[in-house]
Design a protein that fits this description.
This protein is of the alpha/beta class. The chain has a single domain, classed as Rossmann fold. It has helices at residues 3-48, 56-60, 72-83, 95-109, 124-134, 161-189, 210-229, 254-257, 266-275, 287-298, 301-326; strands at 63-67, 87-92, 113-117, 141-144, 192-197, 235-240, 282-283. Helix 5 runs parallel beside helix 6 (161-189) and helix 6 packs parallel to helix 7. The chain is globular, with a radius of gyration of 22 Å. The N and C termini lie far apart (69 Å). 38% of the residues are buried. Bound molecules: NADP nicotinamide-adenine-dinucleotide phosphate. Residues 68-74, 92-94, 97, 118-121, 145-149, 170, 197, 199-200, 242, 244-245, 247-250, 266 line the site of NADP nicotinamide-adenine-dinucleotide phosphate (NAP).
Length: 327
């Protein structure tokens, strides 16, 4: 090959790589700027257009149903909605925890509540039972928060089969059937909101949490496609993908169980997330997590997967060390 041809080939290759890189950064920036505009509009509109501000109850309806609402994000999200005057339907497994949360919400926020005991690992049976126990209470805001995670980061063959199956039934099954159960009545009323909570783990395949992360990718794709299907029907369909929030789910490592700038407590997380309802379609639900998401998605997927797998190895070591120390 002539020297001139070689130089020409090298130039074409460089130009191609530069163009692909520039296009990738451009498309990420478009997403980021779009989200930034939505967030800025939501923060500024109450100052400049106070007449356009309407309460969540007026906009969507007076009752909200939150799944997995006796602990962590679900409980904090339910309280935040109650603080805005919404009546709350609490759904989770333990009757004791439901009653305690019900009392807390009624005495603090003076709204109506209803408790429904249901175990989403039972699949359709649980969703049918929720509908039946609900009677004719119209749900204006449906928050599909319930989710199951591994006990700690594990290799696939270490996770008990029943646990894997429960993760699929709860994370994939419940969100799907709960949306199916309530979306038609929202469509008829031309009013309502659905909030589906996935996780930052949906951003890439995640070693040592393979099934959990894959189930969260399902939620993201499902929610975005559902929003498209029902566009124009007056329903807000929001996807939230939090990074780490300091809840019991992260008990396996102190690094993510303790509150910090990037690991908010569920109350701070939910305050911000609720303020984004009806304003931002896709969000992490927390300002510091939005920054993390932006910098995470700049990286190629294989690097993100490598880093995610590495972090999970560290969390796994933390957990195994704490177990061996306590025995
Ligand atoms: N914490 C994080 O760092 C984080 C990060 C990203 C995404 N997320 C997602 O955010 C959501 C909430 O997580 P969290 O950390 O707040 O969880 P959490 O603190 O463990 O709370 C889970 C809630 O769900 C209920 N629940 C558990 N299994 C249930 C079942 N089979 N049927 C009905 N209710 C059930 C629990 O009450 P009972 O035990 O009484 O049923 C509890 O109220 C999940 O979807 C999770 O994947 C969390």
């Amino acid at each position: 090959m002539q020297k001139g041809e070689e130089t020409m080939e090298a130039t074409i290759l460089t130009m191609t790589l530069l163009t692909v890189g520039a296009l990738t950064i451009f498309s990420l920036l478009i997403d980021f700027i779009w989200n930034l505009l939505q967030v800025s509009k939501s923060l500024l509109s109450p100052l400049f257009l106070p007449n356009e501000e309407t309460s969540l109850a007026n906009k969507y309806g007076t009752w909200a149903l939150v799944t997995g609402s006796t602990d962590g994000i679900g409980k904090a999200y339910a309280c935040e909605l109650a603080s805005k005057g919404l009546n709350i339907v609490l759904v989770s497994r333990s009757f004791e925890k439901l009653s305690k949360t019900q009392k807390e919400i009624e005495s603090t926020y003076s709204v109506k509540t209803k408790i429904i005991q249901a175990d989403f690992s039972l699949g359709k049976q649980a969703v049918d039972s929720v509908k039946e126990q609900l009677g004719n209470i119209p749900i204006g805001i449906l928050v599909n928060n319930v989710g199951k995670q591994y006990e700690y980061p594990m290799y696939l063959a270490e996770v008990p089969e029943e646990e894997l199956w429960d993760i699929i039934k709860i994370n994939v099954g419940a969100v799907t059937l709960m949306c199916r159960a309530f979306i038609d009545e929202m469509k008829t009323r031309r009013k309502g909101a659905i909030v589906n909570i996935s996780s930052g783990s949906e951003l890439q395949p995640l070693p040592l949490m393979t099934v959990y992360a894959a189930s969260k990718t399902y939620i993201k794709n499902f929610t975005q496609a559902l929003r498209y299907e029902y566009r124009g029907d007056g329903i807000t369909i929001q996807h939230l993908a939090p990074m780490f929030v300091a809840t019991k789910m992260n008990h396996f490592s102190d690094k993510i169980y303790r509150k910090s700038l990037f690991v908010p407590d569920p109350v701070s997380y939910s305050k911000y997330a609720v303020s984004m309802l009806g304003k931002v379609d896709d969000s992490s639900g927390y300002w510091a997590h939005d920054i993390q998401t932006f910098f995470t998605t700049i990286l190629p997927e294989w690097i993100r997967m490598y880093i995610g797998g590495y972090m999970n190895k560290l969390f796994r070591e933390d957990y195994l060390k704490s177990i061996s120390e306590s025995s």
